[in-house]
Amino acid sequence: QVRPVESGGALVRVGGSLRLSCEAFGHIVNWNDMAWYRRVSGLERELVAYITASGMINYVDSVKGRFTISREDAENMLYLQMNNLKPADTGVYFCIRRPPLDALWGQGTQVTVSQ
User: In the beta sheet, which residues pair with residue 112?
Assistant: First the structure.
C-alpha cells in the first residue's frame, strides 16, 4: 500500500517554528479532504488541521493562530507551518485524508518542543 511520507520534524525550543511537509502518496490533495494529525505519547491521534478539496480550512482550537495548513496541488504536497511552538505540540505528526483510512497511515515525523 502506498502511504504518505512526512518530513520536517525536529527538536525545537519553545517559541520556535517548523514547517512540516507531506508527499501525499496514495492521495490526491485537491481531490481528497486532507489533514494533519498528531499523536502525543500515550494518547490517541488527534486532528490538528484539515483542508477540504474545495479549500476550506479548520484547526483545533489549541493551534489556531499559530499553525497554517496548505497544499501544493501540482506537486501533490501538503504542508503545516507551525509557529510559536509549545511543549504541548510535541508529538508525531501524520498527514492523511480525512476521514482517515487505517491502511494509509504513514510513519509520521517527530516534533519535540523543549523548554
Answer: 11
Distance CA 115, CA 13 (A): 6
By C-alpha distance, which of 91, 113, 90 is closest to 14?
113
Predicted confidence band at 52 (pLDDT cuts at 50, 70, 90)? very high
| Banded pLDDT at 41 (limits 50, 70, 90) | confident
Residue 86 to residue 54: CA distance in whole angstroms: 30
Q: Which of 35, 15, 22 is nearest to 89 (CA)?
A: 15
**At 102, is the pLDDT very low, low, confident or very high (cuts 50, 70, 90)?**
confident
The answer to whether 22 touches 95, Cβ cutoff 8 Å, is yes
Residues 6 or more apart in contact with residue 34 via CB below 8 angstroms: 24, 27, 50, 51, 71, 78, 95, 96, 97, 98
